[in-house]
User: Fold these one by one.
Assistant:
Number 1:
Amino acid sequence: MKDWSPDELQKNLEAGSKVFLKLWKKGCGACKLSIPALERIEAADTHGLKFGQICTDDHPEILEISESHVLPVFFVFADKQMRGHLEGFKGI
């Protein structure tokens, strides 16, 4: 999963890309626990999703835009619109 800036996210959305986005924070245990599951999801993707993650330590403004304060938080975008999101990670 690539590290993105909010600008990179915006470019992908404007291009109409299907996007899977993770917002995370350094030192967040649940954020770290999600890594293996997300690697499997990315490897198994058959929908042409672009996977990116934004660190909220580096880009705190993204939390205001997302309207979420639970981390990690995951979003799926298609056709320039958010199609779903999930807050938190409990493992699989």
Number 2:
Amino acid sequence: MADEGAVVKGLAVTPEQLLGYAYAGLLSAVIAAALEPSRVQGFVGSLGGLLASLAALGIGVGIYVLYFKVVGEFLIYPLQHALHRLVDYARGRRAAFSTSSVAYLGYLGVRFGHRRAAYEAIKAFFFEGKARRRIQLAHGELHVLYLTAVEAAAAASYLAGHKRPYTHWLWSAAIVFGAAIVADTRQHMIEASMLRAHDPEEVQQFLSNGGYRHPPQAPPANGFDAGEVQ
């Protein structure tokens, strides 16, 4: 029988994704059972245990993709990076000394709007072997926190829409989200340190090859920048 590593490799998913898929489906099933036990019981009874488990996994994949590609990409991750940069600003850590991995990529010349993609490329290809796997697992653990906050907030919204008590779900979402922000910031500090341990020119070459950095500008003609001509 193939071992776990071979199965994951055959599925072409990272440990980060696999953990996210499974947890999102399991948590959604638990929350649904807590909010609407009779409906969930009827659903499981009509499908049977095996099909209900597969349905939960499929729902988990959908929830994870929505969370990662939409909610995370356009709301959660930009907010975390902005808060991290505020922390760096307050501590006087900027440019080459940024503890935010995304801010450090900006220092290396990565264009605004391309830094998230460059960061994902760094995670996927620049760190190798055990280091890459540790990073993937660490981010999988962070997704557990973020998914808990998102799904708890969704449960609060559902209860509020049905005029049922919801504040305990909302408070749970807020507390877990705060913990996720703190843990995510710490993880980015670790990754920024790992990235700074490499030759900046080597990293810049990798980013240039991927099309993430500003293209190098030609020396100004006649001693001035042509863009300054009015």
Number 3:
Amino acid sequence: MIDAEMVQRRASSFSIVPALAVLLGVMALISLGVWQVQRLHWKEAMLARIAALQGAPPEPLGVVLNRLGEAGRPEVGEVDFVRVQTACPTLQQTPTLRLYAVLGGVMGRRLITACPIRAGRFRTLLVDRGFVPDETPVAGGPRQTAPPLDAPVIGVLRAAPQLGWLTPPSDAAKNDWRARDIPAMAKALGAPSPAPVFLMLETPRPQSGVPMPAAVPTDIPNNHLGYALTWFGLAAGLIGVYLASLLRPSRPLPRPRSFVKRSART
């Protein structure tokens, strides 16, 4: 049973500064855990869409792009991971941009070109033709000798990631791109009114195998549940340590030696 003296000692040992620091730390850890739970739901929905995509037939590009809402306010998420088909006979004849990428642990470039379309207010669609390892030389200019494509182009629409201050800068003059910047890429290619999505090419595949189409990632990790449990566990641990420090028996401070010696002499 805790006597009145111990309760008084606990009350005297309580300080607002450590309590406030613990509170802020717990709030930050819980916020990180909640954010990971939200990421978990988003990742599960994305994986479900990818799984459903495996057997989905391609839809007409114009029909899909018309789902993007009213002009100037596209809802790109509505068409993310949707398989489409369209005509693009000049796909292999137009200039290409080189976007830095890593595929299967191999560094290389993804070739980005523009396909003229007529779908609502959009007149151009940027097409990711596939991956080329760094050791494979690829020309970036137009190839007028390439035959036009008779078969329709089939691929998966993907939203471009949001650009932030951490996004590495691209060098358009050197054709060295580090981010999927649709407005800047469209300007470099002379492509008017681009759609706010990329077409990740699936077919047709070049006979040479270069570039290698890689429309849908196959190794998407989903560790957000473990991350969330880690943050929540750290929050619980911090609360436990703080409570233990409050309940720990307090020891009286030792008296100075000089005082002890004087007391012994008297």
